[in-house]
């Protein structure tokens, strides 16, 4: 900034925390969580008969995860916190809003894909199984490539940002952080599978939200800030001295930002690719019970909106407002472009308002967010390796134990490859900013072919194979060509610029649409959805009673949903949820991306003090509401199951006797729960549901 001494060669500050602190968090805290999950897994096996040595339990949690845990699962990426503050600093108030608007619509949209998969192919474990059954081996291999590229770049994006933040806060070597962050994740994912992922997501999300709500209060206790009104004055004065290029009147306080809306376009296309081509989202949708898929994804998507919006707006405002004052970590210089691009706006702002406590808080939330989402990515790739590679191409008669073993191999293999790939990107000069902008070029080509695979019976085999490959080629060509045409060369610096990335993302996203339609028109497939049911995919089928279930510990609950296609209520029930998902998907996109922001962009409105105060206050209230939804809803939703587990532990570790309604004739029978039959009939704990 012009009013500060700027030294672009200064790319870091003196770490406020010791290297030992960094290693304690990354290794010790990671392993504590890991062994806690191992312990919980053992307890669940003993008290509830949930055996993670069984494939269906390890990969899909017997397809019965409840709404509360589905709603709190894996939305909170570390890039949401680091990246939203980064774009807020670059583009003003529009940046965090577009970051949030680029995330929530596709999470809600995935409820439509998830419930459609549950309806059409309820035994599936991965997206790729659906592709293989419909289109055959070649398409299966093409989509496998697309999904693995998606997972690899998504993990690299997270690790690059998280490792840079941890290094800046502790002085820990960035490569050490890159390789050590996945260690604890590997341990608990190896043992607990998808169940451990759900539980860890919940604990991490709750902890992160508590810290973010702390920041939303702590910022205004700093004398240099004092109030929202004074913060507005500070930011307005700063942006008057150093106008933001592309913003209306150069001010921070406007949604009319050319860079902001360009980023919004990049971000929404990128995230549609990241979500739809991420097998982890499908794994979690398959793990959810039928009645949890739609409300879980809808509640999760809408609640998540507040996190990048509130945090990014507040912390980027703090950065703009007080970076010319002695409490700012880089004072008397401004942040260098390298520091901003590395995602250090949030850590520096936290240090400014809370000192070492702020540094510790950011270290914890970064660690928890990245390990939580790493777990989802690892389990996704593990499912591809075990089901779509090993079981399909190496051992079609693989036993339950064989698939579990290769799932374990997959957990370890992908963690090592992802850390090594992130290290390579770091050493060639790539950081969070570069991956944040270009990610969609490689993740978006499969969006329309995948959606058509699930929702459009006409898409043909050649269209499914050719369209995404042509789309990726088109996107890469336009991305690199734009960098060359606009900036004269193809380099890390030019390919990370906003316009080449936007053009590349748009080409990768939308070119497969006409490719697929045109190729399909030559010879449509007219696929029969019932063909999905011809192949047996599940190793075992869990049955759940459709009546009121009670046990001797007082855990009672009415199972009011059909649980199999043989139930006459199944089709109308699932179709009703499909309609609800479609309505929410359209409403969320129109609300968050069209009706709310675009009129403000067109109006060239500059936020007044009162409007900015209302904007920030509403976002913070929404953030606190997200805390209650993600933190307490899963506990309320699973209260009967939690009580049952505690009572089982008190009675020696396992229930003595349970009453179950027979799924075949409706008669009540007794069974010994030591063999685990009770679990199929009684929802005994929150993790299962």
Automatic annotation (TrEMBL):
It comes from the Eukaryota. Gene3D superfamilies: Sodium/glucose cotransporter (1.20.1730.10). GO terms for molecular function: urea transmembrane transporter activity. This is Probable urea transporter. GO terms for cellular component: plasma membrane. Residues 654-675 are annotated as: Disordered. It is a multi-pass membrane protein. Residues 661-673 have a biased composition (Polar residues). Belongs to the sodium:solute symporter (SSF) (TC 2.A.21) family. It comes from Phialocephala subalpina. The lineage of its organism: Eukaryota, Fungi, Dikarya, Ascomycota, Pezizomycotina.
């Amino acid at each position: 900034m012009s009013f500060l001494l700027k030294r672009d060669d200064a790319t870091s500050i003196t770490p406020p925390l010791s290297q030992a602190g960094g290693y304690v968090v990354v290794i010790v805290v990671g392993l504590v969580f890991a062994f806690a999950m191992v312990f919980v897994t053992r307890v669940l096996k003993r008290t509830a008969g949930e055996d993670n040595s069984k494939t269906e339990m390890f990969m899909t949690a017997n397809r019965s995860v409840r709404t509360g845990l589905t709603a709190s699962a894996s939305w909170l990426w570390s890039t949401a916190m680091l990246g939203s503050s980064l774009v807020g600093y670059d583009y003003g108030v529009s940046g965090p809003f577009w970051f949030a608007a680029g995330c929530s619509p596709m999470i809600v949209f995935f409820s439509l894909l998830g419930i459609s998969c549950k309806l059409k192919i309820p035994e599936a474990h991965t997206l790729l199984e659906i592709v293989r059954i419909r289109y055959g081996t070649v398409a299966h291999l093409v989509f496998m490539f697309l999904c693995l590229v998606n997972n690899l770049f998504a993990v690299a994006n997270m690790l690059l940002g998280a490792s840079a933040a941890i290094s800046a806060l502790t002085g820990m070597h960035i490569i050490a952080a890159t390789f050590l962050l996945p260690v604890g994740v590997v341990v608990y994912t190896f043992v607990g599978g998808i169940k451990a992922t759900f539980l860890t997501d919940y604990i991490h999300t709750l902890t992160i939200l508590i810290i973010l709500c702390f920041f939303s209060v702590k910022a205004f206790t700093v004398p240099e800030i004092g109030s929202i009104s004074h913060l507005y004055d500070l930011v307005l004065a700063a942006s008057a001295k150093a106008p933001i290029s592309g913003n209306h009147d150069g001010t921070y306080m406007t949604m009319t930002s050319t860079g902001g809306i360009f980023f919004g376009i990049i971000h929404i296309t990128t995230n549609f690719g990241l979500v739809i081509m991420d097998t982890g989202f499908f794994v979690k949708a398959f793990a959810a019970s039928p009645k949890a898929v739609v409300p879980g994804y809808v509640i999760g998507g809408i609640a998540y909106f507040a996190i990048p919006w509130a945090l990014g707006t507040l912390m980027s405002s703090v950065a703009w407002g007080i970076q010319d004052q002695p409490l700012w970590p880089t004072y008397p210089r401004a942040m260098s472009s390298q520091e901003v691009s590395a995602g250090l706006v949030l850590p520096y702002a936290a240090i400014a308002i809370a000192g070492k406590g702020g540094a510790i808080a950011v270290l914890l939330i970064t660690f928890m967010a990245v390990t939580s989402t790493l777990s989802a990515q690892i389990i996704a790739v593990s499912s591809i390796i075990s089901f779509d590679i090993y079981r399909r191409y190496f051992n079609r008669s693989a036993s339950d134990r064989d698939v579990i073993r290769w799932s374990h191999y997959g957990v370890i293999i992908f963690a090592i490859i992802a850390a090594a790939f992130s290290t390579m990107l770091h050493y060639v000069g790539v950081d969070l900013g570069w991956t944040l902008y270009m990610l969609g070029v490689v993740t978006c080509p499969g969006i329309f072919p995948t959606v058509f695979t699930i929702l459009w019976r006409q898409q043909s085999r050649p269209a499914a194979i050719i369209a995404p490959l042509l789309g990726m080629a088109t996107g890469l060509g336009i991305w690199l060509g734009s960098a060359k045409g606009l900036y004269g060369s193809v380099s890390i610096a030019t390919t990370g610029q906003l316009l080449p990335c936007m053009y590349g993302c748009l080409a990768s996203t939308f070119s497969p649409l006409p490719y697929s339609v045109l190729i399909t028109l030559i010879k449509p497939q007219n696929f029969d959805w019932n063909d999905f049911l011809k192949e047996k995919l599940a190793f075992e089928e869990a049955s759940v009673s459709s009546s009121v279930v009670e046990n001797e510990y007082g855990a009672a609950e009415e199972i009011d949903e059909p649980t199999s296609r043989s139930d006459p209520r199944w089709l109308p029930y699932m179709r009703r949820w499909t309609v609800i998902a479609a309505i929410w998907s359209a409403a969320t996109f129109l609300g968050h991306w069209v009706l709310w922001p675009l009129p403000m962009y067109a109006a060239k409105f500059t936020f007044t003090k009162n409007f900015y105060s209302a904007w920030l206050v509403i976002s913070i209230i929404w953030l606190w509401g997200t805390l209650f939804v993600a933190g307490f809803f899963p506990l309320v939703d699973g209260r009967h199951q939690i009580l049952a587990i505690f009572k089982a532990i008190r009675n020696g570790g396992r229930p003595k006797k349970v009453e179950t309604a027979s799924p075949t004739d409706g008669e009540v029978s007794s069974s010994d729960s030591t063999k685990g039959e009770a679990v199929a009939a009684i929802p005994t704990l929150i993790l299962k549901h």
